[in-house]
């Protein structure tokens, strides 16, 4: 069987996604890229993230490729009938509505599992069961309360990470739970209930700093004020007033660094013999490294570090990634995508290689509200006449 004929790992899995914003859609994106048929449920007026501005402008366009869209009124009796018919045939349901919303709508796990005992139901929330369970949370909220913002900003200036890292990570944990439950269902024949949450995801990500706190005295300093575990591991200014990050993370790299920059005297200096020795000498040593790097342009530093096979990084902006050689010439970088706006661009693939599978784009993010409403309804036995009647009543959208 050729690679083009090989079924994707989740190709037979049907997913209903009651999702919006980032956390839920990111879980659905992972499953969709792995081959699942993911039906994104949106209201007849359209998913609100289709209309977001500012930093939300890219949510819908990035997180909804390889998905179908069904526009249906979840509160109407006719809409509920549609959902129940879909649940009967579904393998997975994902939801990231506010606490209690799915219960009020009658689409909670207890209700739907009676209709389909094999259903795997993934609920993505701000908090797992506990004192905070009923609180509403957002990515930035849990970054603040989970210590991530404190660790990111300089002292006294907590700062959220530069992307929706907790939403995306929480969605990935949800996808991990779903895939694990699918495997478990093969043994038990039963579906199950899964939860993933923003706050507990933040705590997990903060685990390395919690371990640091448990093993040392005094408060944990934020990352900008830390003493690095590596003697050279920071930004350096270049001759042309740009910046390059350089990281020396082994004694082999230290030797290569000294040789590449013609500073073998450092390599022979007993005060700088080991990584911990160099950390102890950082007050005079790091200014010396700074002065050395300032004698080279950014490109010269990149060329020297690349040739010496030591860790380095130019400081990129998001728009720089469109032209990155690795992302454009490698097999797992960017792929052509057309946004609902009609704009053609390139977006990142799922960053994982599994054998020879191609987890690329099978379909662009749906341009029209309810772009697949007719197709989905016909698949569960709705006639053209009934579909037209539901559209006239504004129970559904996207069938014109």
Notes on the protein architecture:
This protein is of the alpha/beta class and 400 residues long. It contains 18 helices and twelve strands. The model has no long low-confidence stretch (mean pLDDT 96). Strands 6-5-4-1-2-3-12 form a seven-stranded mixed sheet, with helices on both faces. A three-stranded antiparallel sheet has the order 7-8-9. Helix 1 (23-33) crosses helix 8 (165-188), helix 8 packs across helix 9 and helix 11 packs across helix 15. The protein is elongated. The protein has two domains: 14-206 and 331-397, Rossmann fold (3-Layer(aba) Sandwich), CATH 3.40.50.10540; 228-317, formyl-coa transferase, domain 3 (2-Layer Sandwich).
Furnish the topology, listing elements before pairings.
Elements: E1 14-18, H1 23-33, E2 37-42, H2 59-63, E3 67-72, H3 77-89, E4 92-95, H4 101-105, H5 109-115, E5 120-125, H6 139-145, H7 148-152, H8 165-188, E6 193-197, H9 198-205, H10 207-215, E7 232-237, E8 243-248, H11 251-260, H12 264-268, H13 275-280, H14 282-293, H15 298-308, E9 311-314, H16 325-329, E10 334-338, E11 344-348, H17 373-379, H18 384-392, E12 396-397
Parallel strand pairs: 1-2, 1-4, 2-3, 4-5, 5-6
Antiparallel strand pairs: 3-12, 7-8, 8-9, 10-11
Helix pairs in contact: 1-8, 8-9, 11-15
